[in-house]
Amino acid sequence: MNSSPSEKVRIKSKDGVLSRITVFRNPLNHAPVVVIMPAMGVKASFYAPLAHLLVKQELNVVTADLRGHGESAIRPGRHVDFGYREMVLYDWPCIMSQVKMFFPHSLKIILGHSLGGQLSTLYLAENPASIHSLILVAAPSLYYKHWPFPRSIKLLCSTQIFHWIAKALGYYPGRKIGIGGTEAIQLVKDWARVVRTGRYGMIDKNLDYESCLRRLGSAFKISTKIIG
């Protein structure tokens, strides 16, 4: 498969964290642009083959890393902490502003995988006019009561244990556990809280994300397709 030309672009979030996005251009510069947001612990480079395939389908593509992974200049550790708040309020707006600058006349589509999809939904709930479409891949509600028993209890218990492990070590060793990558304490704490409560107040206490999500669901046409 011939690779599509790509360009690394340096970005800086509002709180000063550096990273880089990768831009895959289609010859039709005005074509829609798909922004791929990764799953927890997955580097943006993992999605490069998908990006090349989408360019062949006459789409532009941008891939970005989650904070703390891949091209991000910081790494989680005992002295480097962050969570959902920094990613939704700082990273997503920074990425999308760059996308709009590169493709001002293109339809904007976010393709979010797992955590990347969940955080993209929260960003869109607050900024519903920022994109035209959202595609979610393996990004369901994490609230344990929305899951069938006994998977609900397994999800609840495992995420609370992950939080305790992260708190004890100063970071979450996802590679060793087999779920996610090396993650920040606050990120795992937020993950555990969402599973336990189904609420997102830790991002912005002045915004009712649950109400925003309900309005978002009413405003957008939702199509569900299960493959496999």
Task: Summarize the topology.
Layout: E1 6-12, E2 18-24, E3 33-37, H1 48-56, E4 60-63, H2 84-102, E5 108-113, H3 115-126, E6 133-137, H4 151-169, E7 172-173, H5 174-177, E8 182-183, H6 185-197, H7 209-219
Parallel strand pairs: 3-4, 3-5, 5-6
Antiparallel strand pairs: 1-2, 2-4, 7-8
Helix pairs in contact: 2-3, 3-7, 4-6
How would you portray this structure in words?
The protein has 228 residues and is α/β, with parallel strands linked by helices. The chain has seven helices and eight strands, in the order E-E-E-H-E-H-E-H-E-H-E-H-E-H-H. The chain has one domain (6-219): Rossmann fold (3-Layer(aba) Sandwich). It has helices spanning 48-56, 84-102, 115-126, 151-169, 174-177, 185-197, 209-219; strands at 6-12, 18-24, 33-37, 60-63, 108-113, 133-137, 172-173, 182-183. Strand 3 (33-37), helix 1 and strand 4 form a beta-alpha-beta unit. Helix 2 packs across helix 3, helix 3 (115-126) crosses helix 7 and helix 4 runs antiparallel to helix 6. The longest helix is centred in the middle third of the chain and has 19 residues, at 84-102.
Rg result: 17 Å
* Main pleated sheet: 6 strands, mixed
Counted by DSSP, the helix tally is 7
Give the C-level CATH assignment: Alpha Beta
Task: Please state the average pLDDT score.
Answer: 92
* CATH homology-level superfamily: Alpha/Beta hydrolase fold, catalytic domain
Question: In sequence order, what are the helices and strands, one letter per element?
Answer: EEEHEHEHEHEHEHH
Distance between the termini: 24 Å
The global form is globular
Q: What percent strand?
A: 15-25%
The count of domains is 1
CATH topology: Rossmann fold
Number of DSSP E strands: 8
What would you say the CATH architecture is? 3-Layer(aba) Sandwich
Uncertain regions spanning at least 5 consecutive residues: none
Structural class: alpha/beta
